[in-house]
Write a structure and sequence with these properties.
β2 (about 20-30) and β3 (about 35-40) form a beta hairpin. The chain has one domain. It has a 4-stranded antiparallel beta sheet with strand order 1-2-3-4, with helices on one face. It has 1 helix and 4 strands, in the order ββββα. The protein has one helix at about 45-55, and strands spanning about 10-20, 20-30, 35-40, 40-45. The protein is of the alpha+beta class and about 55 residues long. The model has no long low-confidence stretch (mean pLDDT about 90).
């Protein structure tokens, strides 16, 4: 998988279950862009924190 920002293949991907939701965290080792995704698509960090703090 290539980074959508810099097109390098240095992505780290971590999949996890948080408060009953499947989430995927991706971080590029080249440009350091970070994203969180649910099955519905990309979600902001503040939504991830809400899920963690208020399951």
């Amino acid at each position: 998988m290539l980074c959508p920002t810099c097109a390098k293949s240095a992505l780290i991907e971590i999949r996890m279950h948080v408060a009953g939701s499947e989430l995927t965290f991706r971080r590029c080792g080249g440009c350091e862009v970070q994203t969180w995704e649910s099955p519905e698509g990309e979600i902001p960090l503040d939504r991830v924190l809400e899920l963690v703090c208020h399951p």
